[in-house]
Structures are given as structure tokens and as C-alpha cells.
Amino acid sequence: MIHLDPDFKSLTLSQREVTLRCLYVVTRHADSHRVSGITQLKLVHAIGTALLGVNIDASDAEINSTSLDLMNKELVGVPEPVRHRLFQLFTLIELILDPLPETATETLSEVAEILGVEDDFIEIAREYSQGAYGIAAADLQRKGYLGKPEIVKQGGHMMHINQTLVDPFQVDEDDPELLQEWLALENCSAGSLGRNIWEYYMGRGFVFTGQKGSVNPSIAQHDWIHLLCDYNTTIEGELEVFSFIGSSIPDVKGFSFLVAIVSLFETGRLESWGGGVLNADKGHLELPGMPERVADAIRRGRVCNKDVMYGIDYFNYKDYPIETVREILNIVPKDNEIVSPGVWHPEGITSYQRENGDPQYQPALSLS
Q1: Can you give the pTM of this predicted structure?
Q2: What crossing angle do the helices spanning 67-74 and 102-115 adopt, rounded to 10°?
Q3: 42 occurs within a structural domain
Q4: DSSP state of 279
Q5: Among 56-60, 161-165, 360-364, which stretch is predicted with the lowest mean pLDDT?
Q6: Could you tell me if 62 and 172 lie in one domain?
Q7: Which of 134, 143, 227, 277 has the CA that lies 20 to 30 A from 77?
């Protein structure tokens, strides 16, 4: 199905077609026979259909050395926020290359100059291309969305923690008041957001936050989004949910969530993230259908256009039917042509979670 990201509705068809052709241009320095090169081409096509409203394959893109110059002419007068969102598409497709050649970061710098944007993630891409993964990890936290102290403070308030966060992934294992709020979700009515997340935790054997052994509150916060967006708890579902989160945040630095999740679960350049809760596991964007699922998650995030991580107090909605909360937050359905098993689908839970959770709150073993 053809979709159009709300950021790009002001662009003409010609402008969107030129942008897509330029995305194909920057794939030319990749080896199209390498797995990451093939994945890159698939992701560009998915971006075209899910975000730019254009269905052009690489073989039909009519790309040449002057295509980037044509983009410069076509996009004159386009507002900077739109140009910045376009630039992030170029960054995303370059970051999935493995290995990441230095020519890729040179191309990103060229595209940034053409689009007239300044973006800190070019430097992170350069550090990746030089193998400076530790430095890149530190820069990702410092220069990204979670590097803003005022945002971290706001997040703590929204998550109801009873201490001041100094690190976005700080643990909170001794917070009886917070724990009680989570445990009380059991009493919410069937079909409500609160009852859904309580069953989700029980079925997967997750430890409720506020007590020893629980994940940090930031990671607990993202669980609400798993439910509201109906993204499962496998690694593929994590790729979707963090693509949604990084795209939904109005601040362009929210893109750091996409950088992190691709670096974890596609290239493995980031060893761990989320306070050590998420660890590198390469190659998941290469799986059949995943480029389309990630592109659709980006689309849904941009339609939502809210800080779903640190800008919403989900406890305020605990008694609402989950469908009502989706409407309030403008979380639109997935593209129905994409196969994306949801939270309660038999394939929406890992074997480890199934073994450690309460079976009565787990997805059925089959759809029959």
C-alpha cells in the first residue's frame, strides 16, 4: 500500500520522486551483492512506498551522477524541518551498511550541504566507519535525545518515579510507591490499557518496576508503546517499537532511538543499550519483511507526532479502553499488507518469555 508521511505532504510528486532517486544514488557505493547492500535497497524501496508515496524500484530509478544536483534544485524553498526529516532518511539507509565505508559519511556530508541542514549524527556515522564504536556510543547518548537533562527530568515525572533521574537508564529497585502503582493495574477493567499491560508483564515474566530485579523505568516506559502500537516482544518487535518511538518524537534528535536500535539489532556496532537491558544481536533488519515493517513503524510514528517516551503519563490512561487511548494519541493501524505479528499473536513472544511467564496471560500457542 502506498502511504505518505505527513512531513512530506507539502512536497510535490516531483520533489518526492527526486528524493527517492537520490536515496538510490547513495546506495551505489555499496556492494549490491553483500547482504547489507541488498537490505539497503529494500529499505529504500520501503521508504518510498511508506513515507514518500512513491513506488519506484532501483532498476527503474533512472539514477545518475547529476541526481543529487537535481535534488538541490527541486527542494529550493522547502522548510528546514522537512529537509531535516528527509536527511534522516539518508542517514538511516547509510547506517545499515556493514561494513560502513568512509565514502558513506562523505556522501552524508554532501547531502547535508545540499539540503542545508546540520546534524550531529553524521559524526556518529563517521565514528562507526572508523571503527570507533565506543566513542560513537558515548556520542549517541550525549548528542541524542536522551542527552538533554531537562528531558530526563521530565521523563522521571511522567514515569512516576520517586527520585531525580540523572541518567535516562538509571535503575529504581527500591520504590514501593511506584511498585504499588504498577501492581494496582491488575484491578483495571478488562480491555483497558492498565489491565493489558499488567497481563503483558505477567505473561512474559517481566518484573514490575520499583523492585529488585526490574528493568530501569525508561525501558518499562517503552512497554506501554509495545501494547498501544501492537508490536511484539521479539527482537523484530523491538526494531519496530523503537523505530516508532524515534519517529514519533517531534524533536529531530529523537532519531537517536533509530540509530541505537539499528546499531544493536542490525549491525551490532552498539554492544548494549538501555542500561544493559538490550544487547547486540545482528542481522534482524535483513529478515524477510523487516525493511517494510520498520518503514511502516516510522510512518506511524510521524503520524502520531508526540513524545511517546518522555512526554506522556500513561497512568492517566490506565482505565481507558486501549482502542480509545490509541485514538487519543493518534496511533494509526499498521499497514494491513505488512505481516507484523502483534503482542498477542502466537509468534509475538519469545520462547524464554513463554517459559518464564504465567501461561494464562500469554498469547495462544496457535491461531486455531
Answers
A1: 0.96
A2: 30
A3: yes
A4: E
A5: 56-60
A6: no
A7: 143
